[in-house]
Specification:
mainly alpha
């Protein structure tokens, strides 16, 4: 992705891998993964060798593309969140400056005494 340092992309990629492993191993999802594996095995058993190979290649390509897109969405979401935070921080600083201006008592004119 343009404009994003390689080290930041690598850090996000590692984080996404870690989160993905955690989610995949989460007992809450085990039943669904088991059902999906059974369905896939049943489907693959109906394919000829060439079809099985073609399907495997397609599955690899589609899986890699999905991973790339999810990583990009995660990274863009983080950057969007950071931008919102920065804007809010700037706005809060401006509001604090204005509040301090209103808290100051008006300057008294000592020359009138």
């Amino acid at each position: 992705m343009e404009g994003i340092p390689a080290w930041l992309q690598a850090a996000f990629s590692k984080r996404i891998d870690t989160i993905g492993q955690y989610i995949h191993m989460n007992p809450r999802h085990q039943s669904a993964w088991g059902q999906a594996a059974e369905m896939l095995d049943k489907f693959l058993s109906t394919l000829a060798k060439e079809q099985h190979q073609a399907f495997g290649e397609w599955e690899d390509k589609i899986g890699l593309q999905e991973v790339k897109e999810k990583e990009e969405m995660y990274l863009r979401g983080f950057l969007d969140g950071f931008q919102v935070y920065a804007c809010l921080h700037e706005l809060m600083d401006e509001m604090a400056v204005k509040d301090r201006q209103y808290e100051r008592p008006p300057a008294s004119d000592s020359s009138m005494s």
